[in-house]
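Each record in this resource describes a single protein on a pair of labelled lines. An example record follows, reproduced without changes.
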Amino acid sequence: MSLFRIDRWRRGLWSDLVPLIGVAMLLIAAVISGLLYYAAQQVDANSARQQQGLVSVVVQQALDRVPHDQESVTVWNEAVERVRGTPDPDWLDANLGVWMHTYFGHDRAYILNPAGTAIYAMVDGHRAAPTDYEEVRPVTAPLLQELRDKLGHSVMDKASNPTIRSTGALDLALIGGHPAVVSLKPIISEDGSIQQAPGAYYVHVAIRYLDGRFARNLSSRYLHSAVSFSVGDARPDRHHISYPLMNRSGQTLGSFIWRPMLPGQRMLREIVPVLAASLLFVAAVIALLLFRLRQERLQLEASEAQAQHLAFHDSLTGLPNRALFNDRLDHTLAGLKRGQERLAVLYLDLDRFKEVNDTLGHPGGDELIRQVAARLCEEVRAGDTVARLGGDEFGIIQTGVSSPGDVETLCARVIETVVRPVAIMGSEAFVGISIGSALAPTDGQDRTELLRKADIALYNAKEEGRGRFALFQESMDATVQIRRRVERELREALASGVGLTVFFQPLFSVQQDAVSGVEALVRWQHPQRGLLSPATFIPIAEETGLIEPLGLWVLEHACAAAVGWPITTLAVNVSAVQLRNSKFPQQVLAILARTGFDAKRLELEVTETAIVKGAERSRAALDALRSAGIRIALDDFGTGYSSLSHLRDFAVDRVKIDRSFVTGLAQSPDRTAFVQAIVDLAQATGLKVTAEGVETAEQRATLSDIGCTDLQGYLLSRPLSRMDTDRLFASKALPDQSVA
């Protein structure tokens, strides 16, 4: 059969089927409509019954509640004594009358003597004349007689209701046109210690209306429709339903009437227009069926593409996620095996992201991640892949790599673009980035192996400091084992005190052009690796909890060494962990007492992050230290989330500008302007400003002109041992700068 005949046969088949489909759809619509109407009627009837049952339960709860309310005051020795003789009206108000209205919401209360005469009355929360009882006497008289009969048998009544403590009489009645619960309870001894002769009981009468406040509560809590009460045998219209209120003798007092919730009708109101519209457009639907099928197929394909996109992309940045990153890496590596050029895998991890996220909150952290992702995409070529692997971790697949120099160039560009200030929520945040890279096929052609080596390179880059990159080398494979060994050996060094030493880097006054102080820097004379800088072991100390004993060790040795030096400032670094310890101020003062070092010469350096985390504890510690005369310096200012308000909120004496802003200062007007802003603010608030990392004469001149009060860096002096520092102050000259 030719394609033309097949197509004509298909068109003829649809021409025959369209009328049949139309009739079938009409029949189906009719059946569905009938079923929907029947189901709606059944649902509405069931809903009405449930609402009537709910009203019955609520009324019964009111009947049960009133006697319980009474028993809180009628089964009471003091009440028995107080109602005898000449009762105190104020006491009756506060315990048996007005209090019943205030606490339980009773509308009326009466106290009857053994003769049945009212000696007290409360109406609508106010004391009333006992003669007001005559209005309710026709209703209460039969109940009073019933109660007297019951009292002839037993004061306690546990048989009819185990929760009832005393005999009573209860019924529903109309009081002044109000449906009401009427309950009578004898006032009896709580423990039987007061003898009461039969017929000598005082009786408490409680009345609670079931319209008004009760009806409003019923409406708002259960029926969500205004409830009214109609006296007599009410006949509600077809839009309302009722619940008859009958007393014990079966007499109908009236009915609660309300507009019921009719979920069936609501369902029909929502469905019928849709069904009618469907019937009106059934012809068009049939005519466009094939078109719609085609459209649905296209939409399904689009949905599948979207679902696939969401499954393989990060929702925050739109970048590929780890799954797609791994998949693309596998495909690219497969191409390498067919003889294509080399590639590099880069692992990237943001520096100081946690501090910024803690300060700005998650919205600010999310915005930072988005902006960093956009900057990364700007630095790669069209054929490369940038992925967010999770948290503040990113990955890059760099293709077309001809040499390691290509990778180094990309890493340098990425670091340079990430360290630029990020505008977030009206402020500027500063983060860095560390990068580890592995090349294929040089470092392997298996994805797992390449990623492992890139991760090792990243760890190495972070170990070397912030804002660095590292290409994998075989020697890095032992990094993890070395780190574990360093932790163990650091514990041993702290326990024995052997190997750790303190170096001192001079602080130069710009005005005096002379040494004005020193900063204490811990070093570790490792038995195998030689003299180690803090960057090697301080992070390990912070992670393992060793930073507190190490910090106190450095402080004590620095104070002991500097006690005789002619300096005004001994600066010692303090970690966030130490600052959050409530005992830290006392520990510092104890060290000063042991070493004899003057507190006014001591300056503790804390980072901005250290005082922001646990701000209340940090503030308390700083206040205690400053009250003892110790000065506080804000270290590494300008890194992380730079908030100038912290200079106001936390009392500090000095600001230290981070070395990252000093590096390349003369070549970057932005950095110069930022440093100038810090200096201006510090001068306005009476703070000293120290610039760290001064390595060139040009930097020294620029920082001096800007207004920095003190400078510190390798241009002026490297860190010195204690012996060299002693010689420095003895000779007034700097020793050879080749040490430390």
Q: What stands out?
A: The chain has three domains: 52-258, 316-472, 482-731. The radius of gyration is 44 Å. Residues 3-74 form the longest helix (72 residues). Confidence is low (pLDDT under 50) at residues 1-7, 735-740.
